Amino acid sequence: MKELDYPFDSELIRKKRIKIRKALLADESVTYIEKRIAILGGSTTSEVKNMIELFLLNNGIKPYFYESEYNRFYEDGVFDNPELVGFEPEIIYIHTSTRNIIKWPAAGDDAESVNILSAEVEGKFKGLWDHLSQKYHCPIIQNNFELPFYRMLGNQDAVMLQGRNSYINRLNEMIYVYAREHDNFFVHDINYEAASYGLDKWSEPFYWHMYKYAMAVPAIPYTAYGVAVIIKAILGRNKKVLALDLDNTLWGGVIGDDGPENIEIGQETSLGQTYSEFQSYVKELKQTGTLLTVISKNNDDVARSGFDRPDSVLKVDDFVSFKANWEPKDRNLVEEANELNLLPESFVFADDNPAEREIIRQSIPGVAIPEFDQPENYIHNIDRAGYFEVTKLSSDDLKRNEMYQANAKRSVAQAGFTDYAEYLKSLEMTAEIRPFEEIYMSRIAQLSNKSNQFNLTTRRFTQAEIEKIAADDSYITLYGKLQDKFGDNGVVSVVIGEKENDVLHIRLWLMSCRVLKREMEFAMMDELVNVAGESGITTIYGYYYPTAKNSMVKDFYGIQGFEKISEDEEKNSIWKFVITDDYINKNNSIKVN
Amino acid sequence: MTREEVMEKVNEIIQDVFDDDSIQVTDETVAADVDGWDSLMHITLIGTVEDEFDVKFAMKDVVGMKNVGQMVDLIMEQTD
Fold it and tell me: For chain A, which end, N or C, has fewer CB atoms within 10 Å of the first or last residue's CB respectively?
């Protein structure tokens, strides 16, 4: 819904909240995933909760909330309030702020007493976090502390150990160190939000003394947006691709008319500098794992010549797909999505031309389309929207561009073969297919949350659930990691089976679409039969639950040699496979383990 | 703005915030008279009124506000 896209009108969405909420819930084209979210607050949280709800609904996530009583975040968490225990949170958000710091360093304190003071706060919070993560095994989101709204020591407040500003920085660093060391712990940066909103307005004491809100009520939508962005990223709903126009988007001017030597880029002019800074930003985005593509109305050779300039930060190689032609842009975007085996809704479309943006908005729902009118605001409009929110940089994220580049090379290699089997052999593929291992838990959880197309049951799992299943003897788990001569694809397939005597029920079977038609699904089946047989399983049941996106696997079990035993009116089907001694491996192209 | 105009606009805002076009408020209307007017919605309402009329209530005003009539009076004090 456009009202909830960044940059939103904070007043409008607070005023129209009830109406907007009704409209979101009435939209039947959306299939929501449901999540139980506990908000443990150090101040009033009602409006925070209401706004988080709107932004999550807008992202296809339907939250159910638990709210602690006013300022009971610590007691609720540490002493296991039965209501919270019964709620079984899947995500916990600890909404504390500088208002929750009770004891401050005083002017007469020496270094040692400030140390004791901060150690006390550290002990309290770490105790809370450790307890919550052991008790609930779910992601924890924790606010940092915002800068204080007055400075007793003026400019030196940041310098002297007795200053509030200095003390806040010390506590925040403590939170960050903990976050670096704990996988399922995420900092929500209200300190940055307050600065961005304007600290004086953000911390107007009126709202604290009147309503016990830690921040100005009109600022709450921004905080809620920040939390929603983290939740969406944890659940694997980030955007993956930034599709860029060229003329007046990546450089100033029209390259076809002005020629590559006259476009605005580089350090000569203010506009040129602005576009260069934006190109640098885009290049940094690529380094965090975002895929870049071009969609431009231009002749291909002319478009490419813009990147040949020595002062162009971006080079043609930085893009995993380059479409400069005269086709409609919506068609180009869909083609790029197909090439990359991604859904169009994982795209962000950046174009200075409002008419082009409107075409995409009308024809491909789900594509994010930032306002792109002033080049000096391009970075802000992409950055603040949180499309590509980083929760952590996995090695997979950092290598993603390489993997897609390698895919492009594979397509070229494939064109040289007439026999597909020969082509597969030439890839020299090796796979590692084993029970879930510690280092892959986050990747496995990520895959379960973002795989839509090659996914038989579309069941979503948090990392904590994945870890629990991995440790449980009544499950058989397998991850598949595929490598070939062009590069490492990382973990691309996941299977979870639940044992019931000598029967195995497949609860999850998914594969990343970037390794379609590589026989990886057969390698997984071979290994599953092997492992299941060893643990005394004689029969495997597979389940297919259709969604709007997974029709490509509706006959998957049939192809694997299962027999369909039932199908209901909603096309949910159950498949049966009997393990026999004469099972013949189906995969001939991949060397396994 | 006349007092009647302010009253009418306040009524529209209240209809908007509570998403109910059938609400008709008077000077004597208090929170308990309107379905859903709890302390949380009160905050939203105050914020929206401040926004729409471009006024700012002091804490003592908000604390002392007893009914819709008093809200209208406070708005009148700050607008021409």
Answer: C
